[in-house]
Design a protein that fits this description.
The structure is a single chain. The model has no long low-confidence stretch (mean pLDDT 82). The longest helix has 24 residues. With 82 residues, the chain is mainly α.
């Protein structure tokens, strides 16, 4: 049965108007521009102010690469070695 009453537990949301949509779009665009601008030009505030070395400045030892004259590592498992 349907009972008609004038009381609502929760009122339905009102439809958004054109100015509401334009205003929220403009505010979100400004906030994203502000965030992107500051992450590009002032990223040190979040990432820190240290020297970021180039990859070619690392030595093989720092990267964990053994020397060419080093012995082969011992392999574990079955590698057809009799």
């Amino acid at each position: 049965m349907f009972v008609s009453c004038s009381y609502f537990y929760r009122t339905p949301t009102m439809g958004t108007t054109y100015i509401d949509r334009c205003l929220t779009y403009t505010i979100s665009a400004i906030l994203w521009f502000w965030f992107s601008y500051h992450m590009y030009y002032h990223s040190g505030h979040i990432l820190g102010h240290w020297y970021m070395p180039y990859l070619h400045e690392f030595s093989d030892a720092e990267l964990g690469i053994p020397a060419d004259s080093a012995a082969d590592p011992e392999y574990w498992g079955q590698h057809k070695k009799n």
